[in-house]
Amino acid sequence: MATLLHIDSALARENSVSRAVTASFREAWEAAHPDGTVIHRDLAAEPVPHIDADAYGAGFVPAEERTAEQQSAAALRDQLIRELEEADAILIGAPLYNYAIPSTLKAWLDHVILPGRTSGTENPSAAGTPVTVVSSRGGSYAEGTPQEGNDFAVPYLTHALGTVLGLKAEFIVPELTLARVVPAMSGLIDAADASAASAHETAATRGRELGGELAGATV
């Protein structure tokens, strides 16, 4: 059986576009691979602690030489890393907040990026795992828009997930999610709906294909 690591970070439980699109992926993945396992981390409901000196320092100290505080911090970090390493596919909801990713998602990344194990080595321990990122945003940061160049989520995640961790990252970017909320954006509702529909379709297709591939590989 294959394992999907599903991570959501949107603050909203309802009316969250990133959560809705990751749900489309997950439902298609589960339908294609009903015997698979899903590990779901909701970083808004149960955030992991921001990395501190004990957690960071423990990564560079032999286990037998760690302090009690370092041992406790290292246990959580190791759990998060093992979930990453043991996943056959990864799904991340990463809404754009103030031009970047949610701090809770950054905290998770700070824990799982460990030099000598998941990064900084010729063979990072999770390298090659496919990761699908849903990066929703209230407006548009596409080429030619007034906000072009101000998206610091996709570029950062491309580097952190792809270059640093060695994962195979693909992005789904539903835009204009605030069109029905902000009166000044009312003229963009049709474009927002089209973007959301495309994101759901792409997510479902991606989930179905990956689920099917992994189900076939584990038969």
From TrEMBL:
It is an enzyme of class 1 (oxidoreductase). It comes from the Bacteria. Keywords: Flavoprotein, FMN, NAD, Oxidoreductase. Its EC number is 1.6.5.-, 1.7.1.17. The keyword Flavoprotein applies. FMN binds at residues 16-18, 136-139. Residues 3-163 form the Flavodoxin-like fold domain. InterPro entries: Flavodoxin_fold, Flavoprotein-like_sf, FMN-dep_NADH:Q_OxRdtase_AzoR1, NADH:quinone_OxRdtase_FMN_depd. Binds 1 FMN per subunit. SUPFAM superfamilies: Flavoproteins. The keyword Heme does not apply. It holds the Pfam family Flavodoxin_2. Its cofactor is FMN. It catalyses: 2 a quinone + NADH + H(+) = 2 a 1,4-benzosemiquinone + NAD(+); N,N-dimethyl-1,4-phenylenediamine + anthranilate + 2 NAD(+) = 2-(4-dimethylaminophenyl)diazenylbenzoate + 2 NADH + 2 H(+). PANTHER family: FMN-DEPENDENT NADH-AZOREDUCTASE 1, FMN-DEPENDENT NADH:QUINONE OXIDOREDUCTASE. Belongs to the azoreductase type 1 family. Also exhibits azoreductase activity. Catalyzes the reductive cleavage of the azo bond in aromatic azo compounds to the corresponding amines. HAMAP family: Azoreductase_type1. Homodimer. This is FMN dependent NADH:quinone oxidoreductase. It comes from Streptomyces bohaiensis. The lineage of its organism: Bacteria, Bacillati, Actinomycetota, Actinomycetes, Kitasatosporales. The gene is azoR.
